[in-house]
Amino acid sequence: MSFLQDMLAKGQSLLKFSVPVNSVVGIDIGTSAIKIVQVKRDGGKIKLETYGEIGLGTYASDKSGKVVTLAPDVIGKAVADLLREANVTTKNAVLSIQSQATLIFLLELPEVKESELATLIPNEARKYIPVPLTEVSLDWYVVPKQETYQDEGSSTDPKLMRKKNEVVVVAVRNETLAQYREISDKSGIVSRGNEIEIFSAIRSVFHREITPTMVIDYGAGTTKVSIVEYGVVRAYHVINRGSAFTSESLARTMGIDFDKAEEIKKTVGLVGGANDAKTAEAITTDTAYIISEIQTILLGYERQSHKAVTKIILCGGGAMMPGFLEKVTETFGVETIYGDPFDKAEAPQFMEQVLKKAGPEFTVAMGLALKDFV
C-alpha cells in the first residue's frame, strides 16, 4: 500500500481527503503569522463564516511581523488563541505544511499497473531526496493524460512511442509530520489532514487557467514560486527570502525600529512620492533579488518546456507592497493579478472590497478550507 493509500484510509492524505464534513477551518501556519478561514457547505453553496490572523512575534517575545521559530506546543497555543478570537465554530481543520519542509517533483515513469507504483516510485524518488527514505513519507498522484494535438503520435521512433506516466511526488520528513500532529493536539482541533501550501494556493485562486500560469507567494520568510499547467505543478521553487527581509534591511539602513520599517514598506513600497524617493529606491533594491530569482525560474521553465507563461498570480502579504504588481508586470510582460480566494465563497456584499484587499494574504488558508468541498 502506498503512503497515499494508507493516508487515505486514515483521512490524512497530503493530496486527497475522504468523507467531507459540512464546516471546515483552514489553518495556514506561516513563519511570521497564522491565518485561518472557516467555510461551510449550505445546500449547494460554500459560505464564508469567519477569518482571522495572529502574529507569531509576540509568542517569541519579538516584534509582530518578524520571522520566528517556535516549538509545536507554542504554535498550538497560538492556533487555539486565534480560533477563539475569530469565533471559529468547528473543530474540523486542515493545516498547511510549510513549503520549505517539503520536496515536490515530477517523475516520468513507464505505464505500469497501479499496484506496481508502490515499488517503482520510491526507487525513482530516492534520486531526488537527500535523506534516507525511512526518514520521509511519500505521497503521489498520476497526472491525467491531456488529449491534445501534441499527443497525436506522429513519430515512428519506438522510444518516443512508448507509453509514459507523469507522477507528481511529494516528500515530507516524518519529523515534520509528527510536529504537526503535536500542533493539532495542543490546539484542540480535529485534524482533517495536512496540505502543502502550493496545492492550497492553486485551489483557491485558479479558475479555468490551463495554459502555463505562475503563482508567486511572497511571504514573510520565503517566496514560493510555482508554474502550473492544466492544474499540474510543472515547476516549483522556494526562494529563501521574503518580505520580512526588506523590513529588517530598511530598519538597519534608516536606523528605525522594525515596526516603523514594516509600516513604511506597506505604505511607501516601491513607489513613494517626492519625499520618499530614497526609501522607495532602497525597497526596490531589496526586492530586485526576488525579481531576479523569479526571472531565472521562468526562463528555465520556458527553455525546457518550449512554452510561455501567460499569466502571473500574486499571493502573500509581500505581494501587496505598493508598486510590486506593477514591477512584476513590467519585468515579465504578461497579465499579472492578485489572487482573490474569497470569491470562491459567498459573503455579505458589504464585505466585498475588504475581502478583495485581504485576499492575497489568505490564499493558503482559504484553499485549505475548501479542500473538503471542491
Mean pLDDT: 87
Percent range of helical residues: 25-40%
- Write down how many β-strands occur, each being a DSSP E stretch of 2 or more residues: 13
| Number of individual domains | 1
Q: What portion of residues belong to β-strands?
A: 25-35%
The CATH architecture designation is 2-Layer Sandwich
N-C termini distance: 26 Å
Q: How does the major sheet shape up?
A: 5 strands, mixed
Structure write-up:
This protein has a 5-stranded mixed beta sheet with strand order 3-2-1-4-8. Strands 11-10-9-12-13 form a 5-stranded mixed beta sheet, sandwiched between helices. It has a 3-stranded antiparallel beta sheet with strand order 5-7-6. Helix 2 (72-85) packs across helix 5, helix 6 crosses helix 12 (363-369) and helix 7 (243-254) packs antiparallel against helix 9. It has helices at 3-10, 72-85, 114-125, 158-161, 174-187, 197-205, 243-254, 258-267, 277-305, 324-332, 352-358, 363-369, and strands at residues 23-29, 33-42, 45-55, 92-97, 102-110, 136-142, 164-173, 190-196, 213-218, 223-229, 232-239, 311-315, 335-338. It has a single domain, classed as Nucleotidyltransferase, domain 5. 41% of the residues are buried. Helix content is 36%, strand content 26%. The model is unreliable at 1-12, 147-156 and 158-162 (pLDDT under 50). By secondary structure, the protein is an alpha/beta fold.
Q: Which terms would index this structure?
A:
about 375 residues; alpha/beta; Nucleotidyltransferase, domain 5; five-stranded mixed sheet; about 35% helix; disordered N terminus
